[in-house]
Amino acid sequence: MPRRSKITAIILTLNEEKNIADCLKSVKWVDEIVVVDSGSTDKTIEIAKEYTDKIYYHKFESDFSKQRNFAITKAKGEWILFLDADETLPKGSEEKIKELIANTPSRSPCLPAGRHSGHLEGETIEGFWFPRRNYINKARYLKHGLFYPDWQLRLLRYTKGLQFIGSIHEQPDISHDKTQKVKDVEIFHNSSRTKYDSFFSFYRLFPFIKADGQKLASSSTSTTQIFLSSFSTFFLELWWNLVRRQGHKDGWPGIRGTLIWALYKELSVIYALVSRIIKR
Q1: Do residues 188 and 88 touch, judged by C-beta distance below 8 A?
Q2: What's the number of domains the chain is made of?
Q3: Most C-beta atoms within 10 A of its C-beta, which of 63, 200, 230, 236?
Q4: In the Cβ-directed half-sphere of 98, how many Cα atoms lie within 13 Å?
Q5: In what order do the strands lie in the sheet with 132-135?
Q6: For 217-233, what is each residue's pLDDT tens digit?
Q7: Which structural domain range is residue 116 located in?
Q8: pLDDT tens-digit profile of 108-148?
Q9: Same domain, residue pair 155 and 273
Q10: Stretch 42-71: mean pLDDT, rounded?
Q11: What is the pLDDT of residues 94-110, one digit of tens each?
Q12: Exposed (0-12), middle (13-18) or buried (19+): which is 144, by Cβ within 10 Å?
């Protein structure tokens, strides 16, 4: 019988009193829950204490990777499950995740790496991607286009050098060749107050526009290419996500979300272009 590995769940919080109980309740079966808060002034901490005593404060410095990396230093599990405070795991996830880990070969430096489309002999997997359902209300989630399956790399094997990179679009610094997509473990996301649910919430995308724009401006992409992209990005994003990926099938919520996404991508390119021009 495979040895059972310990699992730590990590959740970052800031004024999440409306969501945190459901989130923590959905992962109460793990061996350890670590909550890293960046200064909540509501009842988030009070609620979290009902589920764990491992609650830490870490000042947010406009860098989500720093928050996650701090949390990793507090985790003792051999596997780490990352959830956002407005996400939950549905019933049945415990058994599926434990079985997934039990059937994953132990890490060994002698084993060759490979592309993981399944549990192949001699391979070692460092992380698992789960599809995420983005709910617009308690009963309905977006099933097409940009918003599903919305793969998230959330279950990671702990290693000494495990860390996240990227201040906003943070991702673990591991090779995707050592990860695997798992369709039958889903994340449920309460997206009723996200940056894609209303044109009035578009302001939440400003930090992302700046971060993506700065990244593109500092890349090796030529100014001419960025200039040309500024005329096409918006329309290409709409065509790809509404037509090719059939986002229109989700009705107005799907169309609205895709419009906001396309505008965000377009403004990121314009930000990069302006940055290049100013530096000249």
Answers
A1: yes
A2: 2
A3: 230
A4: 13
A5: 87-88, 187-190, 132-135, 141-142
A6: 999 999 999 999 999 99
A7: 7-190
A8: 443 333 333 344 444 689 999 999 999 988 888 999 999 99
A9: no
A10: 97
A11: 999 999 999 998 764 43
A12: middle
Q: Which two tokens stand for residue 64?
A: 């989500």
**Domain match, 39 and 168 both:** yes
pLDDT number for residue 157 = 96
The reply to whether 110 and 220 lie within a common domain is no
Contacts of 236 (CB under 8 A, 6+ apart): none
Asked if residue 239 and residue 218 are part of one domain, the reply reads yes
Assess whether 185 and 208 both reside in one domain. no
* C-alpha closest to that of 27 among 78, 99, 98: 98
What backbone phi and psi angles, to 5 degrees, belong to 106?
A: -65, 150
Burial environment of residue 274 by CB neighbours within 10 A (0 to 12, 13 to 18, 19 or more): middle
Please identify, among 131, 164, 190, the residue that sits at the C-terminal boundary of a domain.
190
134 compared with 201, residue with greater pLDDT: 134
Query: Could you tell me if 35 and 154 lie in one domain?
Result: yes
Beta-bridged to residue 129, according to DSSP, are 153, 181
Same domain, 171 and 111: yes
For residue 71, give every residue at least 6 positions away whose Cβ sits within 8 Å of its Cβ, in sequence order, or none: 10, 12, 34, 36, 56, 58
Q: Which residues, in sequence order, are CB contacts of 165 under 8 Å at separation 6+?
A: 65, 171, 172, 173
Please tell me whether residues 160 and 224 are part of one structural domain: no
Residue 35, domain member (yes or no): yes
* Total Cβ atoms within 10 A of residue 184: 10
